Amino acid sequence: MENNNTMKIICCDLEGVFLPEIWINVALKTGIEELKLTTRDISDYDVLMKRRLEILDENRLKLKDIQDVIETLSPLEGAVEALDWIRENSQIIILSDTFEEFARPLMAKLKFPTLFCHSLTIDDSGRIADYNIRIPGHKALTVKSLQQMNYEVIAFGDSYNDTDMILSADHGFFFDPPETVIDDFPDVPVTRGYEELTRMIETLL
Question: For this structure, is 57 an active site residue?
Answer without folding.
Answer: no
